[in-house]
């Protein structure tokens, strides 16, 4: 998708601190971390938001959660705990319209969010 910042990261057109990649997904460090560990895991397919998950494209969601399992081990936060966040739409605080899951950890996180 043109003009999508995450599609550009996938294509290598803008740099990122990538920590995982396979044929379906990539994961990279968030540019503006909200916790000591803050990574984004995204499908390579441009899916606008959680609103656009369908029967046809939803397999990648299960795969993303398996990838997150690997990543949290490697980043050493699996035992301490972490949070997986998806922001959807305006009220959800979504700023990049390419589906992504935040993985946050490395400190005790507050709940509920503001
Ligand atoms: P959201 O607000 O849920 O849409 O999350 C978008 C996230 O993307 C924010 O946490 C941003 O800090 C992050 N972000 C935006 N641009 C970049 C980039 N070029 N590289 C890494 N993370 C980015
Ligand atoms: Zn995109």
TrEMBL record:
The active site is at residue 100. It holds the Pfam family DcpS_C. Residues 5-114 form the HIT domain. One of its GO terms (molecular function) is catalytic activity. A motif (Histidine triad motif) lies at residues 98-102. Signal peptide: none annotated. This is Histidine triad nucleotide-binding protein. It comes from Clostridium polyendosporum.
């Amino acid at each position: 998708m043109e003009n999508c910042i995450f599609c550009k990261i996938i294509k290598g057109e803008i740099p990122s601190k990538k920590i995982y990649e396979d044929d379906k997904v990539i994961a990279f460090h968030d540019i503006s971390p909200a916790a000591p560990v803050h990574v984004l895991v995204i499908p390579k397919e441009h899916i606008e938001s959680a609103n656009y998950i369908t029967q046809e494209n939803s397999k990648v969601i299960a795969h993303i959660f398996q990838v997150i399992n690997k990543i949290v081990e490697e980043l050493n936060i699996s035992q301490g705990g972490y949070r997986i966040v998806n922001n959807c739409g305006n009220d959800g605080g979504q700023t990049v319209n390419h589906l992504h899951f935040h993985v946050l950890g490395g400190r005790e996180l507050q709940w509920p969010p503001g």
